[in-house]
Sequence to fold (221 residues):
Amino acid sequence: MIRAVLFDIDGTLVDSNDAHAEAWVQAFREAGVTVDRAAVRGRIGMGGDKLMPAVSGISEESPEGERISKRRAEIFTQQYLPRLRPFRDADRLVAALKERGLTAVAASSAKKAELNSLLEIAGARSLLDAATSSDDAEGSKPDPDILHAALERAGATAPDAVMIGDTPYDLEAAQRAGVRMIAFRCGGWNDPEFAGAVGIYDGPWDLLAQLDRSVFSSTDS
Fold:
């Protein structure tokens, strides 16, 4: 019996992955560091503490890394966040799963301040029972810490929950936490990268349309 659904937000409910990549590239460029945009885009979904050394060799905990990370947050918040839009039916999907009696919790690698704004954009802030961000976990995705925190907030165990995410890093985190995952293609990854997911859909609208044929079909009250 599924009791809880854990939602990634960026790239899952909100069309924000490209914006995050652009903010990182711009922040690196302003610091005089050249990074490959495709390499950055391919690591969106990781926490910044893992993305930075992977694309630049710079630790987020170093003075330079802290400056770049802070600047990225400023660029994203000021230039990109106001223009972001939710994926179609993002709010309706959350509401539909809540109507089936599920506890819904955000499980995001975003910083808490950014996450609150993203939930507003998704139309999901008032629908969710709780939210966990990178501030609630020691290790960011693909480490499972955020999912462990989300499970605790949901009052659920791993076998009782399903995660919905859009990146291979969501899937790795879910697998390491022992949580089943539904994958969305709308974040920019393809089916072979979601091997092991219990379902793959185009996005919120697609899962909503097939809810009665999904892993959630047995949760009807």
